[in-house]
Design a protein that fits this description.
It is an enzyme of class 2 (transferase). 25% of the residues lie in helices and 31% in strands. The strands form 2 sheets. It has a 9-stranded mixed β-sheet with strand order 3-4-5-2-1-6-7-11-8.
C-alpha cells in the first residue's frame, strides 16, 4: 500500500474508513483497563479520529499521521487552535496536550517521541496489506516497553476476493505477529449489516475484535 494511495484518499475525500464517533469499546472495555492516570498515549496512523479526543481526557496524546489534510481537519473540525512547526522530517501539529506528527510513521523513533503508557491501534494494522503488516508491527514494538498496554482492534472476515483495505486479520495472525508478547482478546462482536466505519463490506462473517497486548 503506497503512501500516495492514502494521500489521494484524503485529497479526494475518499475516507469511508473514517469513523464518525469514538469507538464504543473505549468506554465499555478499555477505560477500566487503563493504567493509573495521567497517561501518555500513542495512536499510530490516527487520521482525524475522535478517539484522539477521548484519550486526551486522561493525559497527553501523540498521534502519527501521513496526511497533512487529516491533521488540519482534525484540529479545525474540533475548533481547536493549533501550532505547527517542523521537527526533522515531520511536521508537528499541537494543541494543548495533543500532538500530531505528520509524516512517515516508519521515521518516528522512541528517542523523538518518548515513552508511552498506552498504544492504541484502532485502524492502522487493518489498513495494511499482509506484506506490510510485519514491518509495521516490528516498528510499533519499539514504542512498547514492559509498562505499556497496547489496545489493538482488528477485523476478520471470509472472502478471498475482497480487495482491502481493510484487510482481514485473524486471531492466529495476531498471535504470530506478536509471538513474543502476551496477547489477550478482551472483546469481540459481529458487525451488523457488514458495516465497517462508513463502508458496507460485501464479505461474510465480518467480526471485530479487541486485543490487549503486553510485553
Amino acid at each position: 500500500m503506497e503512501k500516495d494511495f492514502w494521500l489521494q484518499c484524503w485529497q479526494k475525500k475518499h475516507i469511508a474508513f473514517h469513523q464518525l464517533s469514538f469507538h464504543p469499546w473505549l468506554t465499555s472495555v478499555i477505560k477500566e483497563k487503563l493504567p493509573a492516570q495521567p497517561i501518555k498515549t500513542f495512536i499510530p496512523l490516527c487520521g482525524k479520529s475522535d478517539d484522539i479526543v477521548w484519550f486526551s481526557a486522561f493525559g497527553n496524546v501523540v498521534g502519527s499521521e501521513l496526511s497533512e489534510i487529516a491533521c488540519c481537519d482534525f484540529f479545525t473540525e474540533k475548533g481547536y487552535k493549533f501550532s505547527t512547526k517542523l521537527n526533522g522530517e515531520h511536521a508537528l501539529f499541537q494543541h494543548e496536550n495533543i500532538e500530531l506528527w505528520q509524516g512517515d510513521f516508519f521515521k518516528l523513533t522512541p528517542e523523538k517521541l518518548g515513552d508511552f503508557d498506552v498504544v492504541y491501534d484502532r485502524a492502522a494494522l487493518v489498513a495494511l496489506p499482509k506484506q506490510m503488516q510485519l514491518d509495521y508491527v516490528n516498528h510499533l514494538k519499539q514504542f512498547i516497553d514492559t509498562k505499556t498496554k497496547l489496545f489493538l482492534i482488528a477485523v476478520a472476515f471470509n472472502d478471498d476476493d475482497w480487495q482491502g483495505p481493510p484487510f482481514s486479520i485473524t486471531d492466529d495472525d495476531i498471535q504470530q505477529l506478536f509471538s513474543s508478547f502476551s496477547v489477550e482478546k478482551i472483546a469481540e462482536h459481529k458487525l451488523s449489516n457488514n458495516q465497517f466505519a462508513q463502508r458496507k463490506m460485501a464479505v461474510g462473517n465480518l467480526k471485530e475484535a479487541l486485543y490487549l497486548i503486553q510485553k
